[in-house]
Design brief:
12 helices, DjlA_N, 250 residues, mainly alpha
């Protein structure tokens, strides 16, 4: 019952934040209604350049883990929904991501290009940098290679060092405060499933919750850092519960 109450409170919290800040948007469907969809136009756009940087951060530690891959897939949905041809856009974004996750030699160049494009927009700088930090922390720890690439991107953005370190430290503190589920019963309750449910049913419930609570690069526009931290924390809790159940089912 306690977990149900917590989920209800969190749901209300996220709804309140969305309603409070939704009028402050950096990107919208209206802004892209006349956008000509092609690989060249997308990869040179701010969001296309951002996807390339997401790929660099996701692969910085040598692999894109399952949770990162799932969150990146949802990010494709969030971004492509802004454009006139969502499925075509999504396919191209995937292509951009897959190409850029395999190389690191152009990271600084891309970061400088995006940094110049958003130089006069501190809100976009903050949004992009916050999401990249969140992505690095989503698996529970940040490797040295991830930390190095984040710092290089922040420098290319000419992002205020004090603000960068403050954001990084906030996420680090948040991650360390997340406690694993005390027992398997708590894990099942968090996912809203029963012990005798099949793994297919459990996986479906898990994916639904991840999609509901994932850090949304579009809806986070104009919101404070607490939104991304809460979303990241909830995503990690859901993932921990799912991993515990998978181990229990073996």
């Amino acid at each position: 019952m306690g977990n149900i109450i917590v989920l209800a409170i969190l749901a209300a919290f996220f709804y309140w934040i969305f309603k409070s800040y939704s009028r402050y948007t950096l990107y919208s469907q209206e802004a892209f209604k006349n956008f000509s969809i092609s690989k060249e136009s997308l990869q040179n756009s701010e969001l296309g350049l951002f996807v390339a940087l997401v790929a660099k951060v996701a692969k910085a530690d040598g692999r894109v883990d399952a949770l990162e891959a799932q969150l990146v897939g949802i990010m494709f949905d969030d971004i492509s929904a802004l454009f006139p041809q969502p499925q075509k856009t999504k396919d191209i974004l995937k292509e951009i991501f897959n190409e850029h996750k395999e190389r690191s030699d152009d990271t600084i160049e891309i970061a400088h290009t995006l940094g110049r494009a958003i130089k006069r927009d501190r809100a976009k700088q903050h949004q992009f940098m916050g999401f990249l930090i969140q992505l690095a922390f989503v698996d529970g720890e940040v490797s040295k290679s991830e930390e190095e690439i984040l710092a290089s991107i922040a420098e290319a953005f000419e992002f205020d060092p004090k603000s960068y370190h403050a954001m990084f430290d906030q996420f680090e503190k948040m991650v360390h405060n997340i406690k694993p589920k005390a027992n398997i019963g708590d894990a099942y309750r968090l996912l809203g499933v029963n012990e005798d449910d099949s793994m297919d049913v459990i996986k479906k419930a898990y994916r639904k919750l991840i999609r509901e609570y994932h850090p949304d690069i579009i809806k986070s526009q104009g919101k404070d850092d607490a939104y991304m931290q809460e979303a990241t924390a909830k995503t990690q809790e859901i993932n921990q519960a799912y991993e515990m159940i998978k181990a229990h089912k073996k």
